Amino acid sequence: MTPAARLSGAIDLLCAIQNAPRRPADATANAFFRERRYIGGGDRRAISSIVWDVLRGWRRLQWHLKDISGDISPRLLCSASLLLGGETMENVRKLFSGERYAQKPLTSREDMALKGLEGKELSTQKQPIAVRLEYPDWLDSALRETFGNRLPDEMEAMLGTPTLDLRVNLLKGSREAAIRELRRESLQAEPTKLSPWGLRLDGRQPVTATQAFKDGLVEIQDEGSQLVVAAVDARGEHRVLDYCAGAGGKTLALAMTMENRGHIVACDVHEKRLDGAVKRLRRAGVHNVERHLLVSGDKWAKRRAGSFDRVLVDAPCSGTGTWRRNPDARLRLTPEDIQELVIKQAQILDRAASLVKPGGRMIYATCSLLACENGQQIDTFLKRRTDFVRLPKEQMSELLPAELRNKAQFSLTPLRDGTDGFFACVLERVVTDTKPEETVEAAATTPQAEGPST
Fold first, then answer.
1. Contact predicate 342/403, CB 8 Å
2. Helix axes 249-257, 271-284, angle to 10 degrees
3. Of the candidates 418, 32, 9, 43, which has an alpha carbon nearest to the alpha carbon of residue 204?
4. pLDDT 10s digits, 27-66
5. CA–CA separation, 241 vs 291, rounded Å?
6. Is-contact 420 324, C-beta < 8 A?
7. Kind of pairing, strands 422-429 and 409-412?
8. Angstrom distance (rounded) from CA 255 to CA 261
9. Which residues form the active site (predicted)?
10. Angle, vertex CA 221, rays to CA 220 and CA 227, nearest 5
11. Considering the entire predicted model, what is its pTM?
């Protein structure tokens, strides 16, 4: 495709994303490209790069274009992103030639709005801090509660392009073997600093087309997500529950740490997500996993009360920690979403807790930066459930790096750790006189949420 055709494709994709405001942009993009299979891999990456640059700079682009009359169209947003990224007005005009596969020429209104941007920077100190750092105004106090004086630096790191992290599947081979296999296909992967199974690549790379991926030697998984799995400390003799399993990313890693022994139950309320795990499990060579669909009125949990050594609760959350990868999520998030999520997380915690055996552990994790979803959620849970305590730090998993092993809960950020934003807390169920089935009945009295999802 020509540069003009790629820009035209990006404008069409951005239109599709705007027309589905509550749908994640990556889901819209996947559907967009499935319907246009004639677009090759390199062109898909180029088109996506233009669109994701717009999404990452959304508030700043709107600020630069605020004085123009009428709607700020995808044509204007893509053009402004190119200009503020260093492109010249002359070259932008050429991209709108009106020739085959190119957009129609810029209108006088568009040309007037855009030519004043040439030579300017996307970010400027004149912009309000929430605009410059691309977060909703209403989240300012919550983010300051988390980061304090580090807020500008932490949110600046959230604007960057994320790396591509892989997890080596030790059921199929070593990290060194995976590096060699990837290099044979011209992909230069380096070991991650924190995860013992991680590899890191720069930018977008065609990993899924490699033999290493097809053979199940590597899986795409952020290093922070890998560290959550490390905190679970699942072993071959354990019964493990992945309560919000989704499509099974962490389930696969748990099976690896258990060396394909023991028993894992992967649960979710979304059947399509669980079905999506089947192919991944087969590719990874995993055979110790049972899938279970959670439905209203299901007696499954009651029958298995107090029977799991490890219960991982990868709770549905705001996703604020993944803004580097999903910049559109900043635009979709509302205060009402946070209120609903905090209630849902508490309900899921209560239900999952009843499935932990005395002496067993529950690991609560989110990809959120917000205290109300993280530490505060754990504090209020411990007030409700006195049979749980934070795990003593000397019992934390040895799979974790030393800097994370000295506390029962930890958080990760792009600035400090080079990962997505994650929170994890390890809780232990202490032995009491209360029977497991009694806590199941107590948990059942809480209002029912829609259920876990990832």
1. no
2. 40
3. 43
4. 999 999 999 989 998 899 999 999 999 999 999 999 999 9
5. 10
6. yes
7. antiparallel
8. 7
9. 367 (nucleophile)
10. 155
11. 0.90
